[in-house]
Amino acid sequence: xxxxxxxxxxxxxxxxxxxxxxxxxxxxxxxxxxxxxxxxxxxxxxxxxxxxxxxxxxxxxxxxxxxxxxxxxxxxxxxxxxxxxxxxxxxxxxxxxxxxxxxxxxxxxxxxxxxxxxxxxxxxxxxxxxxxxxxxxxxxxxxxxxxxxxxxxxxxxxxxxxxxxxxxxxxxxxxxxxxxxxxxxxxxxxxxxxxxxxxxxxxxxxxxxxxxxxxxxxxxxxxxxxxxxxxxxxxxxxxxxxxxxxxxxxxxxxxxxxxxxxxxxxxxxxxxxxxxxxxxxxxxxxxxxxxxxxxxxxxxxxxxxxxxxxxxxxxxxxxxxxxxxxxxxxxxxxxxxxxxxxxxxxxxx
Length: 349
Description:
By secondary structure, the chain is α+β, with helices and mostly antiparallel strands. It has 6 helices and 14 strands.
């Protein structure tokens, strides 16, 4: 079978750089893994640069430009290792952090496990012309060759453009207390935390018999006071603010963004004044509309994607949902909404 791009068998293909405009997403990967790399291809055609805290991945010979896809694959495999299914429940199998929580002179050993999971459909990057997968490599810029994972370290760029190579053992020696200790700095009302600061949630569990009693005490004290503890913790080479509060007799460690990481909205909102009558009708409408049970809501994206794939395979047509029209008469729209809400809210005799 000839390949539409190069006129040779797909399994003997050489990789070459694919323009971004020719990369698409595929529902499933077709064909085998292509291993050969075209000589002389500059590594920048394969990689996009991203960094965290000024660190990027380096080999002993030079810099590596990280790939988003490679990180996503590693993250997906890691998520599978952290949890396993036991009957109808998922139970943690591997902690992402082990250390101590301290408040006053009380200290308790804990482990952290992810409290959330990402659900959805995974799409793969494919060549739009033939549907074959796009493979990213870890390529050294100096030697123009792929580098094994054990030869990759972190690189910190100094103000005078020098690069200091940091290996795992160097980062382990980082003089930072929050690498192993979540030290409680104080307490705030739970409703006093701005939700825009929330980042990632973890469950903290007592590690060993010595942590059981102080753990139960901290959870009970926070629940009784209806307050959250504020602390700092270092996860994945970054120190974060964290809020600790109880959830179903379990301590949640919610990492927070630093205040300087949050952008202010500026003039993104509307400065148009509203009338008292409009505000009164809007308040009545909010009171008329039913509450929402989040547990019964679900993600419709996967089902819509299945419809798209089926239509593409059968060359059928999809009917897109109608988009709303701009509201011209605000008062008339509010009054009609109230009438409909009142009608649907009536109970039969």
